[in-house]
Structures are given as C-alpha cells and as structure tokens.
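Before a colleague's protein record goes any further, I have to sign it off. My question to you is simply how this chain folds and whether the tokens agree. I do not need a full report, just your reasoning and any doubts. This is what I was given:
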Amino acid sequence: MRPKDPLHPESDGLVKAGRLGTRLTDTPQAEELFDILLEAPGLRVERIVSTGQVTPEGAWFDQDWDEFVLLVSGAARLLIEGETQDRQLKPGDWLLLPAHCRHRVIWTQEFPPTVWLAIHYQGADAGGESRP
C-alpha cells in the first residue's frame, strides 16, 4: 500500500481531497515549494509555499497563460509592470493575471509561510500553443 500523500490525506482513488495548510515549514527555505494539485490539458492548479522568496531584481514573470492567484495565508507584495505602487496581498486577496501581464513578487512573509493557490489556464486568446 502506498503511503498517503500529505497534501491529499483524504484521497482514496476517485475522489481527491486535501488541505492547503499541510507540510508547512517553521523556518525559511532556500526555494519556494511547488505542489501540483491538478493538471489537465490547458490547466494546472498548484499550491506555492513562500518563505521570504522574491523575484530576482530586474526579472519579471511573463507567462504564455492566464493565472488566477489566491493568497491563502501569510502576506505578499506584488508589482505589476506599468503600475506605480506594489499590491499588498493578505489572506483572501486574489488576482487574475492575463497572459503576458508582466509581474514580480517583491516580498513574501517568511513566518508563518505565505501560501498561494495558483490556477494556470489557457485563455480564449492563447490558441492552445503553450501549456501552463
């Protein structure tokens, strides 16, 4: 019998269930933790756990797919290209970032960790060429 996946402790085959608040660290990590919760053609749902990580100076995310992102816990600041002020995010805040909306994470809370739920999907204009 396979050990249970800590993100999906209630999974039994057909039905998947889990908790976004599992496997959290109480110390900063060198890199963010990415857990894919669901993946299908044109769709990826992932949990991201940040402990102080930021986008490197001068770098921007510029994705070929749309992204819906929800801040589940912790706190973060995000800068969108062309905006003069960063967006301060707290639990429950969400953003819908269309494809090629250049953005960068400029701060994440270390403890308790910042937990994101990100839904990457092909928008109507994407043409299905790139996979999230």
